[in-house]
Specification:
By secondary structure, this protein is of the alpha+beta class. It is about 55% helix and about 20% strand. The chain has three helices and six strands.
């Protein structure tokens, strides 16, 4: 009987065969696992229009469009806020009796002002027989016409209310 390195040749052949068989089984097992992983990978990634790459690119394009729209909306909102500040949105009214001993608080002064304190004061003086209505323009909180005590009071009320809101 032949011997290699003091070991019987048949024993060597058996060891090599068993080792090769185990290696073949390990390779087969790894190939099966790799095939399963590949299958799951392609299910996850997808192909064509439904691929993960195309979905990500589509989402990126939508995000870029949304950012552009957001910038446009912010610019529009700023413009609307500026225009809204020019509206005569600050309004107050004071009722009073300018003729003591006659009637009641039927007279009034109303101030209509915007954020820059521009607008008008409207005053209605009511007596038993007649009513007079006066309109006085206001520019930056001042009028070219003299304001009565009640007109100044209603202007101050508007300004106090406006300052509390801002």
């Amino acid at each position: 009987m032949e011997m290699i390195l003091g070991v019987d040749l048949e024993l060597w052949a058996t060891v090599v065969t068993v080792t090769l068989g185990l290696l073949l089984l390990i390779i087969l097992w790894m190939w099966i696992r790799l095939s399963r992983m590949k299958k799951r990978y392609y299910q996850f990634i997808g192909k064509g229009k439904d691929s993960l790459e195309s979905i990500i690119l589509e989402m990126k394009e939508k995000l870029e469009r949304a950012e552009v729209q957001q910038k446009e909306l912010i610019a529009h909102l700023l413009k609307v806020e500026q225009e809204a500040g020019k509206l005569k949105g600050h309004v107050e009214m004071v009722r009073y009796n300018p003729f003591p001993g006659q009637g009641s608080d039927m007279s009034f002064s109303i101030a209509f002002l915007d954020n820059e304190r521009n607008g008008l004061v409207l005053t209605g003086l009511t007596s038993r027989q007649e009513t007079y209505v006066y309109a006085k323009p206001i520019h930056q909180g001042e009028s070219p016409y003299a304001l009565s005590e009640e007109e100044q009071k209603v202007m101050d009320l508007v300004m106090e209310k406006k300052d509390k809101q801002t």
